[in-house]
Amino acid sequence: MFKKALAHHSNATPIRSSARRALVTSIFAQYPALSEHVGEEEGMLSEKDLGRALVPDGVRSSNFETSAGIEGTMYLSPDGDPLWLSIGRGSKELVPTLALLARLPHDVHPFPVLQLPSPLPPPLLAGAALFLPAVRHLHTPWRLPALPAGAIVALAAGGSGDVLYVGVGRVAAADGLEGALGRLVKHRNEGVERDEGKFADIICIIDDHLWEMGSKPTLAPFALPAPRDPLMPPPQDEPKDVDEAAEGVAAVSLDDNAEEPQIQASEPLAPAEVSTLLSAALLQTLATLPAGTLPLPASQLYSAHILPNRPAYIPPERREDVVIGRSEWKKLAKWMKEVAKDGVIKTKETKGEVVVTSFDPKHPAIDGHASFKTISEDEAKAARRAAREEEAAVPKQMDIQELWKPAGSNAEFWAACGIEKGSLNQPSAIKPLVDAYIERNGLEDKEHRRLVNLDKALASAVGGKEGQTLIRDECMRRLRSGLGWAVSVGGHVKKGALTPISIVVKTRQGRKQVTLVAGLEGFGIDPDDFADDLRRRCAGSTSVQPLTGSSPKLNLKEVMVQGSQGKAVTEALTERGVPRRWIKDEGKKK
Predict the structure, then answer these.
(1) Which positions fall inside the SUI1 domain (predicted)?
(2) CA distance linking residue 254 with residue 127, whole number of Å
(3) Going by fewer Cβ within 10 Å, which terminus of the chain is more open, N or C?
(4) In this predicted model, what pLDDT tens digit does every residue of 346-361 receive, in sequence order?
């Protein structure tokens, strides 16, 4: 909700003491669990003290409008930290912010809490909704709060130890958490492949614009509280060690234009964080594993598949830390056995070595997994970039040649000109060959030299009749149109005529302009690499999408970059050796 800067934010003005007291009363009414922390016993808070923690003296209010046009009111502390939100014009509901959660006294957790993986899935930080597989403890529902649709929930992240508050969300799934989880289990049991869709909307999350507005107070770690109203009663004997190895990291959708935030590398990764990242790599591996790969020794699966599939958002200086020896499991065999116990994979032990024999593609952890950019993909892209930069060090223009060959009914004519069927020839040879044929066979009209008398072979080639007279230029045009064309780009010959690279500027969503580039494949330019180049050159977001109107079989792509970037695109193409005559800047279109 606050991914981008606010479209409007009025000056904050102090509210009256009576209004502050009314605000506190309204908050206690909306969140009855707050009353559980009020009392005269030792360690309890008075209602007055808790009220000041929730709405301090000197609180101010201001109106705001988000970049998406959502209006509301926010209540700020005297230090400028947004504490409460009232979303929607005239709304009486008060929603806590992450800054408010950070100010709560120790052991005061009045809002239901959902635990997410740590580090957080990058799409959540980029503004995506929360999907159910990103919630931890799905297989131990007594650890989950019963959340109806529309409920406000605090979001926390961490490993097997303490957690930290990271945001606030609102349940969007029909019938709440119980309904969403029930549908997920039902679909799995029925073997139905269906995405449950978003589970909750993110109202605010760490490092968004709302968080940046304030002083960014310290988020203290705390033990994940047991839910007041659990989704189901806890079992009599709950196992102490609950396997979470294969929980989904995050089944979220994200606009291709969004950048993947990186984990902050200021501190070493904790064992719980390493475990989460390795679990994500395992799910990525199983979701993309080619058929017939298994069975495979666990050590080979780990080294050849899991390690290359670690998330690319891990900073390069921390990637060597994400290994089994620094995880909570320490040993690969222990990890594989725990994942097998969860039902994600099946293993057997052969001569003292664990062998992964198969996996369950319908398991919620795999079925709900959202693919991400991996370290191997990142390294491959870096290698391609380095190779391209090395080639660019010696700039040279592409060698582009149009070629032709006899085709269809004109084959007899070109054979008479000495051209073999199937041979590729330069366009410059067409006119001399035709002129020589006309002169050799005496076909030029004696009174009008611009006219040609057609013989049988020439008439068949141009679609005329023997004895008919045709203007020489028209004769040349028809001969050219009847040829089979190919193109040589850098020595690589392709069938068909070469289409210039198209650059079009279009206006979308009011005044927003984007530049579309199509036709790169014909010149051997990788659209993904070119999009990366434009992102740096234009300092704007880019995306690669299927070319509108083209056949899916051709797999043609179109690069989009924000803004009117015709000049920058042309420079990028010429630096890659594309001649200017093969660049068609079509300017602005609607």
Answers:
(1) 501-577
(2) 8
(3) C
(4) 999 988 899 999 999 8
Task: Find the distance separating the first CA and the last CA of the chain, reported in whole Å.
Answer: 30
**What domains are defined for the chain?**
8-213 (3.10.400.20), 271-389 (1.10.10.2030), 400-492 (1.10.245.10), 499-589 (3.30.780.10)
Residue matched to tokens 């579309």? 516
User: Among candidates 482, 460, 479, 459, which has minimal Cα distance to 469?
Assistant: 459
Percent of the chain with pLDDT over 90: 35
**Cα–Cα dist 363/382, whole Å:** 34
For tokens 């992102």, the residue is: 535
pTM of the prediction? 0.45
List pLDDT tens digits, range 205-245. Answer: 998 899 988 888 888 888 888 898 888 887 654 444 333 33
What is the model's pLDDT at position 83? Answer: 95
3-state secondary structure 140-174: CHHHCECCCCCCEEEEEEECCCCEEEEEEEEECCC
DSSP character at residue 310: S
User: Is the sign of the CA dihedral 149, 153, 159, 161 positive or negative?
Assistant: negative
**Inter-helix orientation angle 47-54/17-30, to 10°:** 100
**Is 170 in contact with 147 (CB distance < 8 Å)?**
no
Residue 521 contacts by C-beta under 8 Å, 6 or more apart in sequence?
A: 527, 556, 557
What separation in angstroms does the CA of 41 have from each of 38, 225, 548? Answer: 9, 21, 69
The whole-number pLDDT of residue 393 equals: 64
Residue whose C-alpha is closest to residue 61's, from 128, 11, 114: 11
